[in-house]
Amino acid sequence: MSNRSDIIESFILDIIGKSGEAVINRNDLAGRFDCASSQINYVLNTRFTSDKGYSIESRRGGGGYIRLFRMNDSEGYFKALAEEIKAKPLSFGKCEHNIERLVLDGVISVEAGEILESALTDKALKGAEKPDLVRSDIFYRVVEGLWKRRSE
After folding, report:
1. 67 — phi, psi (to 5°)?
2. CB contact at 8 A, 108 and 150
3. Contact 116, 108 (CB under 8 A)
4. Which of 61, 87, 108, 128 fits as disulfide partner to 112, beta carbons 3.0 to 4.6 Å?
5. 78 and 53 within one domain
6. How far does the chain reach from its first CA to its final CA, in angstroms?
7. DSSP designation for 64
8. Whether residue 82 sits in one domain with residue 57
9. 67-104: per-residue pLDDT in tens?
10. Domain boundary among 42, 70, 98
């Protein structure tokens, strides 16, 4: 591990361990690694995202904390993914990460993932005025359908 972000990520992953959950204080962690709390934010926002299978809850203030957990239940995963899609238009790269997660978790087959990726490429959405919005809407509908199918 060559940089501080990798070390911080590894430390958090160790805390998450087998329980699948970690409760940390951003300032305590920044003090431990002798860095700014923005470095901790960077690690959390880039390495512990919903497309990588994590959810983050935070409470600000004096007794503030960050609770990270690995989303291994399908309802939690689909809910977090749907919220992410609704929050802002998705780039193709973001969709790719989410599709990879769906394949790795056995929610969809490799073939279905490849078909979905093909349908969401910039080339496939070439004529769309706002391709990221169209991509997000299509992906949201797919996720919604998968969620309904798994909860039946």
Report:
1. -115, 120
2. no
3. yes
4. 108
5. no
6. 44
7. -
8. no
9. 887 776 556 677 777 887 888 888 999 889 888 888 87
10. 70
- What are the DSSP calls for 19-38, one per residue? TTEEEE-HHHHHHHTTS-HH
Distance CA 69, CA 79 (A): 14
| Number of domains, the chain | 2
> Do residue 105 and residue 138 come from a single domain?
yes
Residue 52: its H or E element: none
Range of the domain at 130: 74-150
Distance in angstroms (rounded) separating the CA atoms of residues 70 and 47: 12
Tens digit of each residue's pLDDT (9 = 90 or more) over 102-115:
887 778 899 999 99
136, two tokens:
């997000």
Q: Is the per-residue pLDDT at 1 higher than 60?
A: no
Instruction: Give CA–CA dist 8/57, Å, rounded.
Output: 18
Tell me: do 145 and 78 sit in the same domain: yes
Give the span between the Cα atoms of 48 and 97, in whole angstroms.
13
For residue 64, give the nearest of 30, 110, 112 by alpha carbon.
30
